[in-house]
Amino acid sequence: MNSIMTERYPLFQMYQALRDQLMHLLSDDDLQYRPTENNPTLGTLCREIGETERSYIESFRTWQQDFSYRHPDAEVETSVAKLSAWFGELDQELKEALESLSEDDLKNRVIDRGGDFKLPPHLQLEVYKEALLIFYGKASVYLHAMGKPLPEQWQHWIG
Fold it and tell me: What's the pTM?
């Protein structure tokens, strides 16, 4: 087991758990909510964070970041069950990609994010964590607007 898995991943899983908590709060109808016509639906936000996770998974596998992936099933953003299943698959793939990295990879390789922006794997995971936090901040606005109670961890970590 490499140092990312022993030193960083246990805390990172707590950040992923916030998304699972979100899924437990929502119905399929909730995914259609948008604060105004100019905002995406909550389901669209959820699809986008899944597509972002796919980008990070592939970056740990290929050492290149590419944000062009789009989920092939547009209905994923209208179904809590489909989103939850997809997120579970993505999380497992991310774990496997991270587990496959050697200590030599962690110390000596970098992920090319484009435009001469390169990060070692441990910082790449931190940047993905920041993407999750941005998503949670956006989702919190939607949850507040819908009058949904926030789980305790959300209240403490996101506000």
Answer: 0.96
